[in-house]
Design brief:
The structure is a homodimer of 395-residue chains. Helix content of chain A is 33%, strand content 27%. Chain A has 395 residues and is an alpha+beta fold. Chain A has two domains: 264 residues, L-amino peptidase D-ALA esterase/amidase (4-Layer Sandwich), CATH 3.60.70; 118 residues, Ubiquitin-like (UB roll). In chain A, α5 links the parallel β7 and β8. In chain A, α1 packs across α2, α2 runs parallel beside α3 and α5 packs parallel to α6. Chain A is globular and about 70 Å long. At the A-B interface, α8, α9, β12 and α11 of A face α8, α9, β12 and α11 of B.
């Protein structure tokens, strides 16, 4: 990414702490030169990683200066020791940067249930502090990857009053991805000046429309974290909730998280295809979302797409057990623009649709023809590589 | 199976109708020489196959004489034509056997959404009729296989009064298996004399404790059918609900369906291992069942087991998002007898547990330590072969 696309006043560094194994940067620091307004959303899993527990308390203040992130170890199911370790990571960063520890957030991703290798982390923190400013936001995106195959970063500029503000998001995804929230770490940084309440509402809305519309494997993680920091350096008049500027910012945030969510789906573990499931003409948005999610989580649908097989019967079966309001003889189904089901039965285009499925971008459109509500879910196909990656994950 | 293990008064035949492709018997007939008491349970999927719709009406009478079964085509999502085809199949059998059409049940399994190849079926029915008695119950179990790798049959004898009664069950499973009910066809035949109400209640109880405790891939099919026929030929005094004889019969039926359910799990598509998830000390049976089911349906748990990786963190994560009452720091987890989690954190036995996972029979025991309720779910591991089988199913 062009440096010009990085929001003003943020500095970065990365280090190799060999958390899971040596050979790559697995520790990263995000630092705002000025105190920032902060909002966050976290996993709704009852089993929460230690850093999530820590951040959920700290974020109540709405303020922050730094985030330390590691890959390779989730620091989840690690008991009291895990909490102590997360606190110590924040503490060491706070001392090194000479800021209050309560302004430091911690995010971890990786294996569950293994204690953090604190000695190696302690040894790496001095270089993280010393090197601050030497890394780019791209380097951070790379350091937080686990089974991701490419770094995920989206950046936009918006004009607020006379000020040009930059909003940049990075995230990691790949596996253990299911809505509420999608399993992942995501950090959005901006130099915009925005009121705390406005930032928090904009984040909530954008997550609902992006990461909460994403599933890779139906498994929800213990570590999902989205943190947004806005450090005011762009110098605009503070954006308030409900204003025109708010709407502008909110739209930009939605665009960024939507693009990141699509990237996560495209880079699902072992995925060869990006799949969007769009349910239309349902009786309620809740039904549309539920149906889209059940189709998107069906192993049988996902393997058929991997095999370029327009096996729409599996979609009909999934709709049937989804529990939503539906009438079999009203359902229409399309793979991209090719209709395979009309009024619940075959349209006779399976062969043509099978050819269409060879594309890398598949949109499954399901029309229930009962109402006016719709919802979309992003996912990917299920491949032999998904199994291979997850059978060998800890080895 | 020894012929002596077949209930008296049932005759069988099979034929090759090349429904999906030639080369195997894919049509079977079960015929009771005497009118039988019949009970059935069917898929709760809103999208029901034509034969399911037909059978659900006919079974209200509680009477039956014959079942025609085919593999290779599910006759689901086939509209009015599908219903006409199912009716015609029953009609042709009824004419050939000179019985009432309403006493003939139809069961189909295979591809969804493709019209039945009725010409080939019509041509095969005369030989089905002519050959009645030439096939064994084993041959029928073989003819109803789709992606199953072995036929599934369980037979028991019980003494009711002075009569020896035989109860034999056959089923097919393999994929699209999820409770309520497990996706499959199952036929239980007996020469016992039993009251209609008693038969129906015994079936319901046994299905709840067996097929409804089974998941392969979380996908519920459109065709699930369990039919039990009792033709009274053993000559015992009719068994009434609640009697000692009822309890004896009910226990036998539970044993049979439980063994069949375990066979289905062991023969899950691509499976290398039988997995039983046992949740104990939950606050309610509903919670215990829900938790066991969510763990059993987790792709991440199932791939870890395939990879002999005692990655219990994925089980903790699944428990956390299951929505049940749980306290992270109370959970104990065992792989067979090896404890991997104590009070929510590692017991340090992952390596030993990894060795244990190389076995073909894995029991995951989860103690929530909150109450006294428990539940078990049967499943299997998730392998690259599952993906391969389902990516190529229709080709």
């Amino acid at each position: 990414m062009n440096e010009k696309n990085t929001p003003k006043g943020f500095l970065f560094s990365t280090a190799e702490a060999a958390i899971k194994k040596p050979g790559r940067k697995d520790l990263a620091l995000i630092y705002s030169q000025k105190e920032a307004v902060v909002a966050g959303m976290f996993t709704t899993n009852k089993v929460k990683a230690a850093p999530v527990k820590l951040d959920m308390k700290r974020i109540m203040s709405g303020e922050g200066r730094a985030i330390i992130v590691n890959s390779g170890n989730a620091n989840a199911c690690t008991g009291k020791q895990g909490l102590d370790d997360a606190k110590e990571m924040a503490e060491l960063i706070a001392k090194g940067l000479n800021i209050k520890s309560s302004l430091v957030y911690v995010a971890s991703t990786g294996v569950i249930g293994t204690p953090m290798p604190m000695e190696r982390i302690r040894n790496s923190i001095p270089s993280l502090i010393q090197d601050i400013g030497k890394a780019s936001i791209d380097d951070v995106a790379r350091a937080i990857m686990t089974t991701d195959t490419f770094p995920k970063i989206v950046s936009k500029k918006i004009k607020i009053g006379k000020s040009i503000c930059t909003v940049s998001g990075i995230c990691k995804g790949a596996g253990m991805i299911c809505p509420n929230m999608a399993t992942m770490l995501c950090f959005v940084l901006s130099d915009i000046s925005i009121n705390k309440d406005a930032l928090s509402r904009a984040l909530k809305e954008s997550v609902e429309l992006s990461f909460n519309r994403l599933t890779i494997d139906g498994d929800m993680s213990t570590n999902d974290t989205v943190i947004v920091m806005a450090n005011r350096i762009a110098g605009n008049k503070p954006v308030l909730y409900g204003s025109d500027e708010y709407i502008k910012f909110s739209k930009t945030l939605i665009q960024i998280t939507d693009e990141l969510a699509r990237m996560i789906a495209r880079d699902g573990e072992g995925a060869t295809k990006f799949v969007e499931v769009s349910v239309k003409e349902a009786t309620s948005v809740a039904d549309a979302k539920k149906a889209a999610l059940i189709v998107a989580n069906s192993n049988l649908v996902k393997t058929a797409i991997f095999g370029n097989d327009a096996n729409w019967g599996r979609i009909m079966a999934a709709l049937g057990y989804s529990g939503i309001k539906m009438r079999e003889n009203k359902v229409d189904i399309f793979f991209n623009k090719i209709q395979v089901v009309k009024d619940g039965i075959a349209s006779g285009n399976d062969k043509e649709a099978g050819e269409e499925l060879k594309k890398k971008d598949i949109k499954i459109t399901i029309k229930l023809k009962l109402g006016k509500a719709s919802a979309n879910i992003y996912t990917c196909d299920l491949t032999e590589d998904y199994v291979k990656i997850n059978a060998e994950y800890r080895t």
